[in-house]
Every structure is written in structure tokens, then in C-alpha cells.
Input
Amino acid sequence: MRTLFQKGWRPVLVLILLFFIWEFCTKIFDIPKWLLPAPSQVITEAISGWSVYAGHLASTGKLIITGFIIGSSIGILVAIGLHLIPFLREAFYPLLIISQNIPTIVLAPLLVIWFGFGMLPKIIVITLVCFFPITVALLDGFRQTNRDLLYYMQMAGASKQQIFWKLEWPHALPSLFSGLKISATYSVMGAVISEWLGAGKGIGVYMTLASSAFRTDRVFVAIFLIIATSLLFFAIIIALEKRVIKWKREEGNGNESA
Output
């Protein structure tokens, strides 16, 4: 954590510099607020408008967490199934790749037509953008299992179940968390896109209403909320990864000391 803070000041410094340039340009060129508000105006709106967007933020947060949990669970189960059953992998893996070539913004209206404007189509959108990175990352993790250890366990008479849970699954955990970190950011994007299609609450709704009213300051507030939510979610996954995969960190420290 200390190393993160030591290295993290550079991008923070760059962001502060960009905000100063942004503020300076809006004042010098007298840019209208509805066209490009100054950072100070965006911050003022973010503070004063908390009561306006707090409910939207809570609604989006609930949607993100629900969709991410469902999408991650499906992604893990699909990866395990494709790994343990080679026939399924040969039959369905190409279809998984094809499914990701369909733009979410195109598929989403069809989901609304089929399932209405409730929670279900929004959860499906988030699930679709979440499960694929997890499935692909976990399958790669299974394939990267140490061959020598695998042959050793097979010669020792270990069953397929023992090999999976004691060797393949632990070695695939770093890859799994890589997929989770990607899906964490995708889930936020999927939630906002799904809210654009038709919802009563959410950051996507807040952004749409602000854009229609030419409240550009509120649009920027929504953008910063989306970025902050993605970073927070990403940080939670990293913290969870450090607690779960302690052996990987200890192994890395051992290599460094050697």
C-alpha cells in the first residue's frame, strides 16, 4: 500500500495540472457554462446537488453489484464446465467469442422488447459484459497449470477432482482475479448503458436528464461519479485478491530475496 501511494502521486499531479489548465481556459476564453463548465463549477454542483443524485447513485450501485455477482458466477461456472468437459469447450467456445461481437448498445433494445423495462434486462446486459472476461481469463489460468505438478499428481493416483481443487483451481486464481478486475469496470459501463434504455433511477438516467436540460455541469458530475465508482470497485477487487492469493505474494517476495 505504501508503494502504491509513493507511485500514485505522479498521476494525481498530472490530473491536478489538467484541471488547472481546464479552469484557466474556461476563464480566459469565456466559454459558456452550458458548453464546457469549469472544474470549480462541476465541483460546486457535485457538492450542492448531492440530494439530487444520491438516489440515482444508490440505484446504480445496487444494479452493478447484483449484475456483477450474477455475471461473475456464470463466468466461473462456464469456465469450469468448458475446462472439465473438452467436448463442451470445442462446441461452445467459438460461440462465446461470436457473442462478444454483438454490440451491447444494439442488443439492449431487444432485451427491453423481450423482457420489459424492469430489472431483468438490465441484469442481463451487465451479465453479458461481465461473464466473458472472467471465462476467458479463468480458462487461460487452467491451461497454465504447472505440467510437472500435474504429472506428479497423476502418477500419485490423484483423482480428477483432487487435481482440480488442489492444483488447477489455486493456480488459476491470479487469472480469475484479472478477469474480475476487467469485469468490475465493465459492470459499471453495462449498468449505465442499461439505464439509458429506460429506468426510473440511476446515474444513466441522471446523465440523460442533465444532457436534455443542457446542464453540462451535471453531465460532468455523472461522468466523475462513474469513474469514481469504477475505481472503487477495482480497488475492492485488488484488496480481495491480496487477501485470497497470499501465496503468490509470498512467492514473489521469495524470488526477489533470492
Notes: The radius of gyration is 23 Å.
